[in-house]
Amino acid sequence: MSDRKITPELLLNAYASGVFPMADSREDDELFWVDPPERGVLPLDGFHIPRSLRKLVRQDRFSVTANKCFKDVVRACAAPAYGRQNTWISEQIETLYADLHAHGFAHSVECWANGRLVGGLYGVSLAGAFFGESMFHLETGASKVALVHLVARLIQGNYQLLDTQFGTEHLAQFGVIEITRQEYHKRLDAALRVTNADFHRLSSELSGDAILQLTTQTS
What we know:
Helices cover about 35% and strands about 25% of the residues. The chain is built from eight helices and nine strands. Strands 4-5-6-7-8-3-9 form a seven-stranded mixed β-sheet, sandwiched between helices. It has a two-stranded antiparallel sheet with strand order 1-2.
C-alpha cells in the first residue's frame, strides 16, 4: 500500500484497531499491516529494571529529553546497526510518523552525552495507550535509559498500555510478556477509554533517582 493513501487519521484508526504498518526494507515503497497472533506488551506495574541499568540511571550519565528531535530519532532507528543491515522503517514510514508527531500523536525520548544524541526511542500515543515503535543507541545503555524514562513518563501520565508489538528475549528482561490477540484487544479497548492521559505531565528535569521512584508508582 502506498503511503499516499495513508493519512494520519487512517493510521490512528489502524492502531485503535490493533494493527500497525511495516515495510520490507528501507527502500520499499509499499507498506503492509501487521496484526500478530501474539502481542508483546510491557505491563507498567510489572516493569523490571536490571540492577546494572538501575545504577546507570542513578548516575545521570545521559541528559534525557522528550520530543526535542523526533525526526532525528526516527532516522537513527532506521540506520543500519550491528546485526541488522536493513530496517522496516522506510522513508514513507518516516514521513507518516513525522505527520503523526506534528499532530501530537507520536513522541520521542532522547538521550544525550556532551550535546550529542546517543540513544532514544519513539512511538505512537493514543488515549491511554503508547505503541512503542523502535529504539537505538550509539553508547552502551542509552536506549535502555530512554526506556526507563519512557515508563516513568507513561506512569506519571496515567497511561494503561505499553505495546511493544513483539516479545523478544531482550525485552523480556524488562518484564515484557506476550499475550494473545484477544487479550491484547481487551487491554487496548480499556486503554482507549482513558480520557486524561498526558505524555507531557512528567517534569523534564527530574534526577535518575526520581525517575526510578516513579517507575514503582502505579495504581
